[in-house]
Amino acid sequence: MDDSKIGGFIIRNKDFTYQYNFSLEKKLDNYKYEIGSEFYKEIAENFKKEMEELYDSKN
Q: The whole model's pTM is what?
């Protein structure tokens, strides 16, 4: 396996005609939309809370 890869594993047959890629890189690539969506929700939620606290402190 390439030294730049971390975590997981890749299974290949002798002829390299098929493989199963269970590397961390592949998992992140497969779920990048879901990860980004959850990240955005967290940021938006925290921003909303901060704005509410700022508004409450000024009133």
A: 0.53
